[in-house]
Write a structure and sequence with these properties.
14 helices; Rossmann fold; 40% helix; 4-stranded parallel beta sheet; single chain
Length: 436
Amino acid sequence: MRAAFVIHVEPKRRDRNEHLGRDAEMRLAEAVGLTRAIGLSVVAERIVPLVRATPATLIGSGKVDEIGVESTALEPEVIIVNAALSPVQQRNLEKAWKTKVLDRTALILEIFGERAQTREGRLQVELAHLTYQRSRLVRSWTHLERQRGGFGFLGGPGETQIETDRRLIGERLAKIRRELETVKRTRGLHRKARQRVPYPVVALVGYTNAGKSTLFNALTKSTVLAKDLLFATLDPTMRALKLPSGRRVVLSDTVGFISDLPTELVAAFRATLEEVLEAEIIVHVRDAAHDESEAQKADVLKVLAELGIEEEGKKYILEVLNKIDLLDAAVRRGLLRRNSPAGPIAISALSGDGVVDLLARLDSLLGENSKTLSLKLDPADGAGLAWAYAHGRVTGRRDRGTSLTLSVSVDLQNIDRFQKRFGDKVAIQQIVKRAS
C-alpha cells in the first residue's frame, strides 16, 4: 500500500464565521480519512500553524525544511497538504520535498475519480478535474489513456509538452460539455416521464459519512453501498418509497457534501444534484454523534445556498439527527421523546429508532400540499376506478346503486391529471395548505 504523509495547514487567525466550530485536530482527522479513502497508508500526520501565507510555498521556509527532513526519513510516495495550493506552490513544494504533493482539491477529485460509476458521474468528475488541471498541467493528463479510476495524480509516465496539453485539455473539455448536454437532455426526458406518473421527490442530503445511504437502504430495502467511508456514495440513486398513508414518493440518495468542497465540483455536479433542486422535501441527514455536527450542518447549508437553495427558501428542509445509537442512552431517549410534528427528527438508521417518526413527518408534510377530490363514477367503469386508485390515495368510498363516489387525496402536481381524466366528475372537497 502506498505511503502518505498528511499535513493540515491551520491559519492562526480565522474569520469568526469561517469553519464554525472547527478544530484543527478534527480537520486533520478528516484529511487523514480522505487520504485513506483512496487506499493510501498514512505513515505520518501533523498540523502546521500558519500566521501568514508565503506566496512561493504557502507555509514558511522553516516548516518546509522540517517537513523535508521528516519526508526523507519516512519516504512517503505522496504528501497531502490539507489546504488549497496554487500551481506554483505545489511545484515548489514538490521540488523541496522531492515527492508528489496533492492539495485538498486534488485529493477530493482523486476520490471522486475512483468512485464515480455511471457515465454521467465520470463525465462530471472529469470536467471538474480538467477545469482544475488546466492551470497546472502537472503530470496527470495521462489519465485519459488509463483504465483504472482516479485521475493520475498518484501516477503516470510524466509531463507532456505544455502546448500539447493545453490543446488536448481544451478539446477534451469541449467534448465532455457536449456529452453532458446529451446526458442532461436524457435526464430531462426521464424527469418528464416521472412527471407523467408524478410522485413527489424526497432528496437526502448531508455531510459525507452522515449515514444517508444507510438510511436510504433502511427506508427502501435497497443495497446501496453504505460504509464508514468518506464519499462512499457519488452517483445519485433513486427508489420508490411507500409512506404509511399509502402515498408513494421517489427517494433520492445524493453525494455527500464536505467543507471546502472544490468549486470545480460544485459547478460540475450541479446537473447531478438537479434532483435536489426538483425535490419537494430535502431531508438534511446529520451525524448527531459527531463532535463537529454543527459545523458540518453549516457546510451543507452553504453548499445548498450555492445551488440556489436557501434554508428559509421555498423548499422544505427537514433536519434529521442520525446515528443516535452512538449517543448516551439517556441522551438518546431524550431526543426520541422530542420527535414531534415540528423541529428535527432524531433517528438511528442502523437500529431503526425514530424511523417511524420520520416517515410520519414526511407523510404529514406532503399531505399539507394536497387536495381532497370527490370523484363520481359509474360502478361499471373499472378502468376509471383502477386509475383513481393508482394515481391517488382513496380515503373514502360510497356505493349507491348506480353511482359510486370516491374521496381521493391527490398531491397538487397530480390535480390536472385527474381533471383531464375525469372532467366534470371531479370536484374539490377541501384544500389543505402547508402551515407557514
